[in-house]
Design goal:
The complex is a heterodimer of chains A (537) and B (303). Chain A is mainly alpha-helical. Helices cover 73% and strands 0% of the residues of chain A. Classes of the chains: A mainly alpha (537), B alpha/beta (303).
Chain lengths: 537, 303
C-alpha cells in the first residue's frame, strides 16, 4: 500500500510537466546534435585539428572542459567528446536538479502534496512517481541524444560512441537527480533543497577541475569525473555507466527510505527555534531583504571566492609555456616566454571572469525576483500596507541584489589573484591588473540587471525570461569560440559586448555608457513598478 | 462634526475586461466601527487593497484622512494598521521577528502592549513562520496591527482560522479600540461579529454597494417576523398590504410585517384580543440573505 496510485501520480506529473520537459530536451538535444553537425566543418582540416588539440591540452582548457585523453590518430569526434562531455554533464545535472525539486519539495511548499497525501495514495507514492519521472526524463534524453549524434554523423563517430554518449549522459543526469531527491528529504524547503544540490554539484565540479589539472587518477574520487572516464569515441568504456547507475540506486534508495520516515513538509535537519524579538538590523525593507537572503548570500560569496581561488591555483601550470609548448618557448627566448606566460594567464583570466560574472549574476537576480515572488505569494502585502514607499522597497531589493552580485564578482577575482599570485611566484600579476576584469564586466552585469528590472516592473509574468541572458551568455562565451560562433551571436547578451579584459585595458568609454544604460533601465523598471497594481486576484 | 476618515465615491476597478468594482460609495466616520459585508468575490478585498494603494483605481475617488489613497499612500499608512484575510509570512522568520518588523516598518517599537497581546493571543513567537498554522499566521498580523498606535484599523476577514476563544479576544480588542475613539473598517463573514461591534454597515454585491446604514435603519427596511395568538380569528390581518407570507391555523398565525408598518398592524391586532405575541426583528443573516438573493424573489426575506 506504500505505493498505491504511483502510476496515476506519475501520469498526472507528466501531464503537468510535459512542456517543461520538451523545452529542456530541445535545449539538451538541440545543443548536442547542432554542435555535432557543425564540428566537421570547424575542425575538418588537419591544421585546425592540430591547433584545437594543442589548445585542449593546455591546463586552462582542461580545467574548463575536462582533459583530452584520446590517443592519436585524432578524429573530429575525439575533439567533440573532449569539448562537450563535461559541459553537457553540467547541463543535464541542472535539468535533473530542477525537475527533482519541482516534483517533490515545491509541491510540498505549496501544499499540493498535503492534498494528495490525504487521498488513498501510498506514503511513498509521490516520491516514487517523482523518481520514475526522472528515469523517464533521462531515458528520453539518452535516446534522443544518441539518435541526434547518429543523425549528425561526425567523422570518427560510431554507433557505440554515440550510444555511450547518450546513455552515459542519461545515467549521469539521473545520478544528480537522485542526489537532489536525497537532499529533498534532508532540507525543509524547495529553496533549501536547490541550495544543497547546487552546492554539491559545485563542490564536485571544482574537485574535478583540480584533480584533472593536477592528477587525473584522483578524478575517480570526484564522482563528476566519471563522465570523463567513459573515453567516448576512443576506448568507449562502458562500466562507469554502471558505476553511475549503482550510485543512483544507492542514493535514490536512501532517499525513498528517508522519505517514508519524515513528516510531510519537514526536513531531517533539525528545526531551530527562532528569535523572540527581531534583531536591531531588521528595521526596514533593506534589513528584511538582507535577513531573508542571509544564508544563501554567504554561501554564494564564499563559493565564488573559492572558485576564483581554485582557478587561480592552476595559473602556475596554465602559464607555463615551457612545459606546454617547448618548441615555441625556445623560439621566443626567456623574456619572451615570461611575457607570453603572462599573456596566457590573462587570456585565461578573461574566460574565467566571464564565468565569474555570470555566476555572480545569479544570486543578484534571485534577490531581484523576490520583489514579484513575494508579492505573488502574498508576504509583501503587509509591507505594502506600511509606510514604506514603493521606491524604498524597490531600491532596497534591487540595491541589495546588485551589491551582492558585484561583491561576488570582486571576490572571485580577488580569490583568483590571491591563489594565482601564490602559484605564479615571481611572475605574479597585481590585483589591479585582474580588476580590469571587474571594471570591464561589472557594467555588463548592471545592464543584465537593468533588463531584468524592467521585466520585474513592467512584465512580471515574464520575469523568468531574464534568465536567458546569463544562461545564453554562459553558453555563447564558454563554448562560443570553440563552436566558431559569429560575433553577432556572441553579442546577443551584454556580457559579449565587453573587450578581452584583463588582457586588454578597460574601455572606459564603453564601461561608462553601459553602466549608464543599466542604471537607466533600473529607473525605467521602477517607473513601471510604481505605476502598476501590486497584487491581482 | 469631525471630518470623515475614509471617503469613497463611485470607486471603480477593472482587471482587463473584468469589472471587479463597479460603483463603491461609502464613508467611514471618525470613531466608528464600520462593517463591510458581502459574499465571496463581491469585491471586499479589492476595495480594501485599492484603499491601501496596492491596486490602482480605474475610476472614482478614494481618500483616507482627506488624502488620496494612491498618491499619499506612505503618509496615510503611517496612521493605519491592516490585517489581511490570508496572512503569508516569510517561512524562515520567526513570529516574533515578523511582529517587530511590521511595527518598525511603521516607525513603532515593540511595547508592553505587544507583549500583552502576544500573551492574550497565546502565540509562540519563537517558532518559524513555516511551522505556523493559518490561525497562528493570522495572530501574528493581528498582534502587530493591534499593538500599532494608529488612527484607522482595517481588518479584512481577520478572524478566519481563529478559534472561538481567540475570536472573542479579537472582538474585545476591537471594542477597546472603539472605546479609545479609533476608527475601524471591518470586512467580515461572521455576521454575529459585525452585529455585535459595528455602528454602521455597508453591503457589497458584485462590485456595487447596495446598502449602507446603521443596522437599525436596515432593519427598518426589512420585515419583522410575528407569531401571534388571538381570541378572535385573524382573517382581517391577512388582507393588510404590509403583511406577507401569512399562515394561520385557527387563532394562531405567523406572518412577516414591513418594519415601518409595525405600528399599524399592532393597532389592527389589538381589537382581536392578543393572548400571546412574539416579534422577531430581522437578524443580519436575514438582511444578508435578502440582499444576496435578490434575483430569488422578494419573499425570500421572510423565509
Amino acid at each position: 500500500m506504500q505505493h498505491a496510485k504511483t502510476g496515476f501520480l506519475l501520469k498526472t506529473a507528466l501531464r503537468r510537466d510535459w512542456l517543461k520537459i520538451v523545452l529542456w530536451l530541445l535545449g539538451v538535444v538541440g545543443l548536442m546534435a547542432g554542435a555535432a553537425g557543425k564540428f566537421d566543418t570547424l575542425y575538418g582540416s588537419p591544421k585546425a585539428m592540430a591547433t584545437i588539440i594543442e589548445t585542449l591540452k593546455t591546463p586552462a582548457m582542461v580545467s574548463l572542459l575536462g582533459p583530452f585523453t584520446a590517443k592519436a590518430p585524432y578524429t573530429v569526434a575525439n575533439v567533440y567528446a573532449a569539448e562537450m562531455m563535461v559541459f553537457m554533464g553540467l547541463f543535464v545535472a541542472m535539468m535533473n536538479s530542477y525537475f527533482a525539486v519541482h516534483t517533490t519539495r515545491a509541491e510540498e511548499d505549496t501544499g499540493v502534496a498535503e492534498l494528495i497525501r490525504a487521498h488513498a495514495v501510498g506514503r511513498s507514492a509521490s516520491l516514487t512517481a517523482a523518481s520514475l519521472e526522472l528515469v523517464i526524463l533521462n531515458l528520453i534524453t539518452a535516446v534522443l541524444a544518441a539518435l541526434g549524434l547518429q543523425a549528425a554523423g561526425m567523422t570518427g563517430a560510431d554507433a557505440a560512441g554515440n550510444w555511450l554518449f547518450g546513455l552515459g549522459l542519461g545515467a549521469f543526469g539521473l545520478m544528480f537527480g537522485a542526489f537532489t531527491l536525497l537532499f529533498a528529504q534532508v532540507a525543509d524547503s524547495a529553496r533549501g533543497t536547490t541550495l544543497l544540490s547546487y552546492s554539491w554539484l559545485g563542490l564536485l565540479f571544482i574537485a574535478r577541475m583540480v584533480t584533472d589539472v593536477t592528477d587525473p587518477k584522483l578524478t575517480w574520487w570526484t564522482i563528476y569525473g566519471w563522465i570523463e572516464k567513459l573515453a567516448i569515441y576512443d576506448q568507449n568504456t562502458w562500466w562507469p555507466v554502471l558505476l553511475m547507475l549503482a550510485l543512483t540506486a544507492l542514493v535514490g534508495g536512501l532517499a525513498l527510505r528517508l522519505g517514508t520516515q519524515r513528516d510531510l513538509g519537514a526536513g531531517l535537519l533539525p528545526q531551530r527555534a527562532g528569535r523572540r524579538t527581531a534583531s536591531p538590523f531588521l528595521r526596514g525593507p533593506l534589513g528584511l531583504v538582507a535577513r531573508l537572503e542571509r544564508t544563501s548570500t554567504i554561501i554564494w560569496l564564499i563559493a565564488l571566492l573559492i572558485l576564483g581561488a581554485t582557478y587561480g591555483s592552476i595559473f602556475g601550470t596554465a602559464g607555463d609555456l615551457m612545459s606546454s609548448n617547448p618548441t615555441m618557448a625556445k623560439l621566443i627566448g626567456t623574456t619572451g616566454v615570461r611575457l607570453a606566460n603572462r599573456a596566457i594567464v590573462l587570456a585565461f583570466a578573461n574566460k574565467l571572469t566571464v564565468i565569474f560574472v555570470i555566476l555572480a549574476t545569479i544570486p543578484g537576480l534571485i534577490t531581484l525576483f523576490r520583489l514579484n515572488r513575494d508579492e505573488a505569494r502574498g508576504s509583501l502585502e503587509l509591507v505594502h500596507a506600511k509606510s514604506v514607499s514603493r521606491l524604498r522597497l524597490y531600491a532596497s531589493v534591487t540595491g541589495f541584489g546588485l551589491v551582492i552580485a558585484l561583491a561576488g564578482l570582486a571576490l572571485a577575482i580577488w580569490g583568483m589573484q590571491l591563489a594565482g599570485g601564490a602559484a605564479m611566484g615571481p611572475d605574479a600579476l597585481s590585483l589591479s591588473r585582474y580588476m580590469r576584469g571587474f571594471w570591464g564586466y561589472a557594467p555588463a552585469l548592471i545592464v543584465t540587471f537593468g533588463v531584468s528590472a524592467v521585466l520585474v516592473g513592467a512584465l512580471q509574468r515574464w520575469q523568468s525570461v531574464a534568465w536567458a541572458l546569463p544562461a545564453y551568455g554562459f553558453f555563447s562565451l564558454y563554448l562560443g569560440s570553440l563552436l566558431d560562433f559569429p560575433d553577432w551571436a556572441k553579442q546577443l547578451t551584454p556580457y559579449g559586448w565587453v573587450n578581452d579584459v584583463p588582457l586588454k585595458a578597460v574601455d572606459w568609454g564603453q564601461a561608462g555608457w553601459m553602466t549608464a544604460l543599466g542604471l537607466g533601465l533600473l529607473v525605467l523598471g521602477y517607473l513601471a513598478y510604481a505605476r502598476r497594481d501590486l497584487r491581482e486576484n | 462634526m469631525t471630518e470623515p476618515i475614509v471617503v469613497i465615491e463611485h470607486l471603480q476597478k477593472h482587471f482587463g475586461k473584468f469589472q471587479a468594482l463597479k460603483d463603491i460609495t461609502m464613508t467611514v466616520n471618525a470613531g466608528e466601527v464600520f462593517g463591510f459585508i458581502g459574499p465571496n468575490g463581491a469585491g471586499k478585498s479589492t476595495t480594501i487593497r485599492t484603499l491601501l494603494g496596492i491596486l490602482k483605481k480605474s475610476g472614482g475617488s478614494a481618500t483616507i484622512f482627506g488624502q488620496d489613497v494612491w498618491h499619499e499612500a506612505v503618509a496615510i499608512h503611517k496612521r493605519l494598521a491592516y490585517v489581511p484575510g490570508d496572512v503569508t509570512l516569510w517561512p524562515n522568520l520567526s513570529g516574533g521577528e515578523a511582529i517587530d518588523l511590521f511595527l518598525r516598518l511603521n516607525d513603532q517599537a515593540h511595547s508592553p502592549r505587544t507583549d500583552a497581546l502576544i500573551a492574550k493571543f497565546d502565540l509562540d513567537v519563537r517558532k518559524k513562520a513555516r511551522t505556523y498554522s493559518k490561525g497562528n499566521r493570522q495572530k501574528v498580523a493581528l498582534i502587530a496591527a493591534l499593538s500599532t498606535d494608529a488612527d484607522l484599523y482595517i481588518f479584512d476577514e481577520p478572524t478566519s482560522g481563529l478559534d472561538p476563544l481567540m475570536e472573542e479576544v479579537f472582538q474585545q480588542e476591537v471594542l477597546g479600540l472603539k472605546a479609545a475613539g479609533k476608527s475601524v473598517l471591518l470586512s467580515s463573514h461572521i455576521l454575529s461579529e459585525v452585529e455585535r461591534m459595528c455602528d454602521r454597515i455597508a453591503i457589497i454585491r458584485e462590485g456595487t454597494i447596495i446598502e449602507t446604514g446603521t443596522l437599525d435603519a436596515m432593519r427598518q427596511l426589512s420585515r419583522t417576523q410575528i407569531r401571534v395568538t388571538t381570541q378572535q380569528p385573524l382573517d382581517a390581518i391577512a388582507a393588510l398590504p404590509a403583511v406577507h407570507s401569512f399562515k394561520a391555523t385557527g387563532t394562531k398565525a405567523t406572518f412577516a410585517v414591513d418594519s415601518e408598518a409595525l405600528g399599524d398592524v399592532m393597532r389592527a391586532l389589538t381589537p382581536l384580543g392578543i393572548t400571546a405575541l412574539q416579534s422577531t426583528p430581522p437578524t443580519l443573516e436575514d438582511l444578508f440573505l435578502r440582499y444576496y438573493n435578490q434575483e430569488g424573489g422578494a419573499d425570500d426575506a421572510t423565509r
